[in-house]
Amino acid sequence: MANFPKDFLFGTATSSYQIEGAANEDGRTPSIWDTFSKTSGMTYNGDTGDIACDHYHRYKEDIGILKEIGVKAYRFSIAWPRIFPEKGRFNPKGMDFYKKLIEELLKNDIIPVVTIYHWDLPQWAGDMDGWLNSECINWYLEYSSKLFEEIGDIIPMWITHNEPWCASILSYGIGEHAPGHKDYREALIAAHHILLSHGKAVKVFRDMNIKNSQIGIALNLTPAYPATETKEDNLAAKYADGFTNRWFLDPIFKGNYPVDMIELFKKEIGEFDFINEKDLSIISQPIDFLGINFYSRSIVKYKEDTLLKGIGVEGTGKKTDMGWEISPESLYDLLKRLDKEYTRIPIYITENGAAFKDIITEDGKVHDQERIEYIKEHLKYANKFIKEGGNLKGYFLWSLLDNFEWAYGYSKRFGIVYVDFETQKRILKDSAIWYKEVINRASIVF
Ligand code: FCB
Predict the structure, then answer these.
(1) Of these four, 8, 46, 177, 397, which has the most CB atoms within 10 Å of its CB?
(2) Which one of the listed residues 20, 186, 351, 405 is annotated catalytic?
């Protein structure tokens, strides 16, 4: 048995495009994800977020479920194209939806945690080159300042960006996410603009002097381990770490980009002339907390003729339905490292969870024992970190509902609540019932 501090924030997380649906309602215009998902071959089965979990219409029912599970906090994101459907035009109707959602959460004693940007960039911004255009930083600031003005002080925790690595590298470099480009120079420009927009939004937030509210960012961090102890594999692991983790952690916490990665990337992308000296002091604005999204680890083997001098190899551990190796000890390694090398500000696990092939059995239930094991093991290591003095303050399970899993469409189920996408019926999986007990006792039993 492991106990958590009484004030440990147990929550769940979702994002707008993945659950809301109502793609054309109350003045919302398309985001780059509407366009991307409607482009042939970009998502599994051509799935889109047009309807998703229909949360826009069912938010009360969903908050009822949160209440039933007993979560203390709920992390959700705001759809930018609902708030600014056109460049420079604020849409009060779009804002109203979030005001009603927040009111309902507060009525049920659930703390609202808001992600400002979880990838649904308005298509109008996408049409002007999206995050490749440094103007996008100003559009983002107009949008975030408006949110601070409208609901700043009723939201205790603001997250500027969700996973800048995915919004830049996976989207502009690897091409798996919207807008689906495959150019590493673009990827690093987008990453820089996203980081800069983060720093600038933090500044605006401070200048507006918003009371009783904190601001941070959510990074997806994947610890990289060498396949063997050779010098080469160690180097490959160091680069893999630089690619996913240090490229974002270093500017935020140390005010510089990692030199070894600059040298490596230069060969591929040329000069870093899109970075100005003063940018880094903006990006490294002090933040109040760090959010980390953790799912798995990577194991890397040296390979000369690749950008990162390495390729991933399969681990021996069990895998989730995403094919991601289950490695809860790596969460512990990561937390320890953050504590030692980067920061002692409060850390929140802003996402952790797993997709499995869930089925409804004859009893009408979903017995997702594997998910329970996954969460329990991760909480166990999170708890170990806390017991050793680590400053971990909360855990947001990804996800409340089965939802639109980006390029995988509806083929991957991450929810602790099953969604029948035909009927929109919700069924609490065993994991939801188990999580309820965990929250209620503030402990896990193993
Ligand atoms: C993360 C995303 C989240 C969800 C999970 C499975 O990268 O932030 O939206 O898709 O992965």
Answers:
(1) 397
(2) 351
Distance between CA atoms of residues 331 and 315, nearest Å: 15
> Taking phi first (over 0 means left), then psi (-120 to 50 degrees means alpha), and beta for anything else, what does residue 420 get?
beta
pLDDT confidence tier of residue 277, bands split at 50, 70 and 90 = confident
User: How many structural domains is the chain composed of?
Assistant: 1
Residue with tokens 């069924």: 427
State the Cα–Cα distance between residues 200 and 217, nearest whole angstrom: 12
Nearest-Å Rg of the Cα atoms of the chain is 21
Range of the domain at 228: 2-444
Is residue 156 scored above 90 in pLDDT? yes
**Catalytic-residue membership of 163:** yes
Give the CATH number for residue 137: 3.20.20.80
Measured in angstroms, how far is the CA atom of residue 13 from the centroid of ligand 1? 10
**Whole-number pLDDT of residue 446:** 86
